[in-house]
Amino acid sequence: MKKNILIVDDSALMRRVMCDIINASSGFQVTDVCRDGLEAYEKLRVKKYDAVLLDINMPQMDGLQLLEKLKQENIKATVIIVSSLSTKDAKVTLLAIERGAIDFVTKPENIIEAKGEEFRVRILQVLDGVCNPPMISARAKQGKTQATERILPKKPMNQGDKLVALACSTGGPKALQQVIPFLDPDMDAPMLVVQHMPAGFTKSMSERLNEISSIKVREAQDGDLLEKGVVYVAPGGKHLRIRRTTSGKHQVALGDEAPIGGLKPCADVMFESLKECSFGQVTCVVLTGMGSDGTKGITSLSHQVSLHVIAQNADSCVVYGMPKAIAEAGLTDEVVPLDQVAKSILKNVGVSKNGRKSIS
């Protein structure tokens, strides 16, 4: 049975383009279209949809106002924002995610792009991810790595040389707001974050996370030297690697190579780069997202470094794809709900205060 989709956009052209994309697919159909948030509100009061594609800037009631109204009246809806790519729109899109939207698709700048393959694939990919959750195997539910499956690290574990490396995708911006603000500013490790987002959005996301967190958060820049208690977010449109300098410090290196599997930044690139570093222990964290990005990189890294792998559990994921792939590969040491991820990170890497490492 096809999934029912509601489209909300004040542009007749965009409504038609999205209808054509969705109705031509085998798994989805557009049940209703609305020209603004007020029309959509009246629909959502009485009818359920498998997903809603929502524009932000509309007359009468815009996308943000609709999300706030749905939240106030406890009307459940799976909302995907279709937004422009400007810096201003990036901030508004992230605010929409805070108000309940679960993901976004960047709106094409012209009719040629709107009718192009990239937009079509992205729309259907996101709908498939949020509407068709994968089956969970017994192995993934168990969330434990068998001792015989983990290759012993070649490097000795160094308690004073740690790193946290996190990857997420669909549902990630909202998930990060339930993790990073709960980290201690004296966390005894730097932290890297790869969130699949376009250029422009990661800067706004980093700034927002920094505003609501006691730990420092910033979009990574080429040449940054890693500091404990700082979160470095990979810029959209760049691959992030970590290099060891001649003085033994660790430095951010941003690359402009082609996307890998359509992803840029790619978590596998980040994880694999850590093999050449001197970290004695890396805490790998994999949160909600489609696909399997991170699995290959963590597998490769496990041959070189002592790892502790934390995966978000299925029930708290928007899309249980990336954490599922990690669990299926037998790499996880912990499978925890989203609200326990920060606690698990801190328990593993510790907190440094007055020269002493401690966990409260």
Task: Give a verbal description of the structure.
The structure is a single chain. This protein has 13 helices and 16 strands. It is an alpha/beta fold and 360 residues long. A seven-stranded parallel β-sheet has the order 8-9-7-6-12-13-14, sandwiched between helices. A five-stranded parallel β-sheet has the order 2-1-3-4-5, with helices on both faces. It has a two-stranded antiparallel ribbon with strand order 10-11. The longest helix has 15 residues, at 117-131. It is elongated, with a radius of gyration of 21 Å. It starts with a strand and ends with a strand. Residues 144-160 and 355-360 have low confidence and may be disordered.
Question: Could you give the topology of this structure?
Answer:
Blueprint: E1 3-8, H1 12-23, E2 28-34, H2 37-46, E3 51-54, H3 63-72, E4 79-83, H4 87-98, E5 103-106, H5 111-114, H6 117-131, H7 138-142, E6 162-168, H8 172-176, E7 191-195, H9 201-212, E8 216-219, E9 230-233, E10 239-244, E11 250-255, H10 267-273, E12 281-286, H11 295-301, E13 306-312, H12 322-328, E14 334-336, H13 341-349, E15 351-353, E16 356-358
Parallel strand pairs: 1-2, 1-3, 3-4, 4-5, 6-7, 6-12, 7-9, 8-9, 12-13, 13-14
Antiparallel strand pairs: 10-11, 15-16
Helix pairs in contact: 2-3, 10-11
Give the ordered list of helices and strands. EHEHEHEHEHHHEHEHEEEEHEHEHEHEE
Q: Please tell me what the overall shape is.
A: elongated
Q: Quick one: how many beta strands? A: 16
Strands in their spatial order, largest beta sheet? 8-9-7-6-12-13-14
Q: What integer is the average pLDDT?
A: 90
Structural class by SSE content: alpha/beta
